[in-house]
Amino acid sequence: MCFAFEVAKIDPAAGRLGRLTTPHGVIETPFFLPVGTAAAVKALTQDTLEDLGAKIILANTYHLYLRPGHELIRRLGGLHRFMSWPRAILTDSGGYQVFSLSELRKVTDDGVRFRSHLDGSEHLLTPEKAAEIQLALGSDIAMVLDECIATPAPRELAQSALRRTTEWARRARTYFLECGRRKGKLAQWQFGIVQGATFADLRRESARQLLELDFPGYAVGGLAIGEPHAITCEMTGEVTALLPQDRPRYLMGVGRPEQVADYVALGIDMMDCVLPTRAARHACLYTSEGRVLIKNACYAQDERAIDPQCSCAVCRRYSRAYLRHLFAAGEITAAILATHHNVHFYLDLMKRIREAIEFGNLAKFSSAMHARYAAGPA
Ligand SMILES: [Zn+2]
């Protein structure tokens, strides 16, 4: 069992390069996590994900707890074995899904009571329970339960969610460390999540309170949920300025292709987003020249690859005309090919960002991406 995080290069204005070592492999930072909500990245097999070079994926505590259940997964040897994924896994705490998917939720200091979006059954998710579920799943990185609120939020609401998030983080940390004492060293890292909505002072306060709990890594949550990109960046910068250099920083649920380099420049090491997979299923493809909305009539006879500069298996073999036809005909293959390309695009984007940091030209890379994506669909 080994965990480590080393920062190889830090440029205060242009990101950092590092290596995150987990029991399931070493990952170069900054990196992107494809989202595998229910232990599956929609439309991709684990074989394909490995071929694409994904070193870590995200799975969802909320979904796996409700179906098939964490105890079943534990009995079958843990999530890696259950889904036959030999590389690293990060599980989120379920907090965000409870707030976005479940019905009749009621938040108290104890935890959050909710009804399953699947069968209406009632559940209580506490900080301890979220930690217990993730230990049963056996993910490499687990997140603490936090209270997510919509933005823009009134200051009083943001303050009370912040207070509760810190208290829940304290309980989750205590539970986790206690399990470690009872069972021996755990093969899992537990990360704290900074909240505070769009209030800079609350973000700083949340970060300072979590630092006292000494997590091996810190996430920034509750951003990129509707506020302008400049605000997301401002809040992220407030937090990363306070976080220790020797711990990984994870910005949750971001971002659009042209925004990713901006977050890296603020000192973020890891990100996850449903965008490449979800957009693919809706016929939106990301390319080096901007978005390609493949259903558009202009692609009906276009024999070029989705992205002539892309080296993925789909771009090497198929034309835009064929992809457009598959979407028009409602073929499952459309989602498979589009997802393959988009996930390749994001993983390759991170690789190019790492190279840009290496050569000290991340700012130039970022402005080029913004220019291409501002130009609109090709
Ligand atoms: Zn491609």
What does this structure look like?
This protein has 378 residues and is of the alpha/beta class. The protein has 15 helices and 16 strands. The protein has helices spanning 46-52, 61-66, 70-75, 79-82, 95-101, 127-137, 155-183, 200-211, 229-240, 260-265, 275-281, 313-317, 320-328, 332-358, 362-374, and strands at 4-10, 16-22, 25-29, 31-33, 56-60, 88-92, 103-107, 112-115, 122-125, 141-143, 189-194, 217-220, 249-251, 270-272, 284-287, 290-293. The strands form four sheets. An eight-stranded parallel β-sheet has the order 4-14-13-12-11-10-6-5. Residues 306-307, 310, 312, 314-315, 341, 344 line the site of zinc ion.
Summarize the structure.
The protein is α/β, with parallel strands linked by helices. 43% of the residues lie in helices and 19% in strands.
Features:
alpha/beta, 3-stranded antiparallel beta sheet, binds zinc ion, 43% helix, 15 helices, globular
End-to-end span in angstroms? 47 Å
| DSSP summary, beta strand count | 16
User: What portion of residues belong to β-strands?
Assistant: 15-25%
- Read across the widest sheet, the strand sequence of neighbours is 4-14-13-12-11-10-6-5
